[in-house]
Fold this protein.
Amino acid sequence: MKYNYVEKAVQITRREFIGLAGVAAAALWTGAYAVTDLVEDRNKYIKMRMAGLYKDDEKQAVRQSHNNKSLMQMYGKLAGKPMSPLAEELFHTQYVNRMIS
Amino acid sequence: MQKSYQNHELHNIIQIDPKVCKGCDSCKSFCPADAIEGSYGATHSINDERCLQCGQCLVNCPFGSIQDTVDVVDDVIEKLQDGKSTVVAMVAPAVRVALGEAFGMEPGTLVTQKMYGALKKAGFKIMDVNFAADNTIMEEGTELVEKIQTYILNQPNEHNLGPLPQFTSCCPAWVRYVELYHPNLREHLSSAKSPQGMAGPVVKIYGAQEIWNVAPEDIYCVGIYPCTAKKFEASRPEFTAAADYWKKRGHSANYQDTDVVLTTRDLARLLKKLSIDIQTVEPADENDNPLAEYTGAGTIFGATGGVMEAALRTAYFVTTGQELSTLDYEPVRGLQQVKTANVPLRLKNNGPEIVLKVAVVHGTKNVEPLLKEVEQGISPYHFIEVMNCPGGCVNGGGQPINPMGTSWVGKFKAIFPWS
């Protein structure tokens, strides 16, 4: 029996198994939490900046473009009304074909 | 091979630094145009011909390896100090809710007055692009109303109108996307220029004559946008309306409507170079400046759904003769990828009731199904707003890089500021 090698059996008690499984589950859980948190955070700063703009909107006494007095004054002095010939010249454009062949 | 840029247009704005790139592929998931080349693990590069210059890859690169290579901060400082130029800062809606972040403030902090104060201290005259946004609504809204009258109510019209549905044209990356990948649909884009396109002529014609009394040639327009694609847009050869206007009136100089563009990040850098801190600067009002008057409709241009909401407030009034009873139009707000709404309009003078069908899309990749419908002629919509960046301009490629986002390097710096 000199060369009869017996591999040492893996010995793990039920309690140890439950403990290790618990640690593994915690690690996975933390990882998943961190990832979802990252995704949620991404939207968070976008939402915070959007909220800032909507707050600015609510703060304004005038909230419709056609009631902007200075703008209407400019139309009166310069372009007349929207889509007048001068407005077309200054405020409208055409688009080009950029298709790569 | 045909180039996707016209002569003298700025391009190659967004570039990847091969020394820093880890080949992690994150940027590819943010690119709306599949313009990033290089396989997983290998150094990536941007195909300039396909690129929209939107900078979404830049603000989302985990390693900070992507750069905005057009840096005009020093040129602007030189103009501010040369003593003869009237340097006008044209500042966009979304800048005021993100500029504070570069000075340690919470995202979304509204710093309009402090921003005015800082710009004045630096030597700028101010034109608020929110004014130009209101101007855009008047032009784009009028165009939409005329299309409704022509195509739905069969009334005669003197203008050369494009077909319905009408797409918004405020977002330069989206406009380039249409021109590059769907040029057959470009008649559907509103012929109204973007607010940047309108702001330049307003400053160099109306501002020169009525507000500042200076020669248009001496005005140096600095656009300040949350956007890297605006740098490209400002250089479009057709954006010379002010110079063309003055040439018909005895002047001869050539110049672009907007001379240079700074991003929100660039502006923060400029202010820091001049030792101006947004936190401590004296706030300033611009109540006596007509070109800084703006409405709530102008300011929400910077959020997805905002252009639509602003347009509806005015289109409702123009078609029905009455103001909307509630101005907050919730169906077009929020971060859903595609938002749709049916807006009933009872036309004035006892006219019939029509239903205006609208759609709002952010993230250019999400618009493809709607473009297919338009191409097949079965699109149910009348008006479609598209913004290239998820969430709209507030999340533009020129905004401060937020450590909450996918930029791990930024996040690391937020936790360990000394690193």
Summary: Chain B touches chain A through 90 residues (CB under 8 Å). Chain B is about 35% helix and 15% strand. The longest strand of chain B covers residues 353-362. Chain B has a mean pLDDT of 93.
